[in-house]
Amino acid sequence: MRIGTLGNGLMAEALAGQWVKAGHEVMIGGRDRDRAVEAAKRIAAAGGSRVEAGSLVEAAEYGEVVLLAVPAEVAVEVAGLVAAGRTVIDCTNALDHRDFTLAQPATAEAIARAVPGVNVVKAFNLAADAVWRNPPSGLGVPICGDEAVDVVAGLVRDIGGVPVAAGGLVRAKLLEATAALAIGIWVGGGDVRGMFPSLGDAFGAVLPGES
């Protein structure tokens, strides 16, 4: 599959590196072509030969699937470069770093409204780039979307993750809020991982089950 990244930062490089290793063709796109070239070189040096660099426009045109990995405040504008019929993976989190709340809720939904015909899928927003550089086997990756969810689920599996169906795009705001909550707790010194030790047991009493 041909994948373009809109952005040449840490998240784009981490995920693109894994997809190249899985056999996909990737173009790293950025406003600064030199930075995109450097990111592509690092991916190639790490064992990924099927990677090249270009502008944001070139990467948007290149990818059947496009990873949107730019600051959230420009996400809607940059997503407008993607043609109808293609799939955009939104991994952004619009955080207000003063109190770790959402600065602009529902970025994924805003993209879908602003760019008609593009399949927007929310995924990969709950972990930092360091996780995606060396993802643990079996890591659950929630996905929200109305179209092309199966395509993104395949890309999750390609990096050793487990796709978790999290509902339609209308639920993407919940993924974004979950990221804000978790990051705020982590910055405050809390143990986010310890919050969900056995969700099956926790919800078993309130969810309908077999009698």
From TrEMBL:
Keywords (A to Z) from UniProt: Oxidoreductase
Which GO molecular function entries does the Swiss-Prot or TrEMBL record give?
Answer: oxidoreductase activity
InterPro entries given in the database record: NAD(P)-bd_dom_sf (IPR036291), P5C_Rdtase_cat_N (IPR028939), STEAP_metalloreductase (IPR051267)
Q: Which Gene3D superfamilies match?
A: NAD(P)-binding Rossmann-like Domain
**Domain Pyrroline-5-carboxylate reductase catalytic N-terminal: where?**
2-93
Q: Which domain of life is it from?
A: Bacteria
SUPFAM superfamilies noted in UniProt: NAD(P)-binding Rossmann-fold domains (SSF51735)
Q: Which Pfam families match?
A: F420_oxidored
Q: What is this protein's record name? A: NADP oxidoreductase
> Can you name the source organism?
Kribbella jiaozuonensis
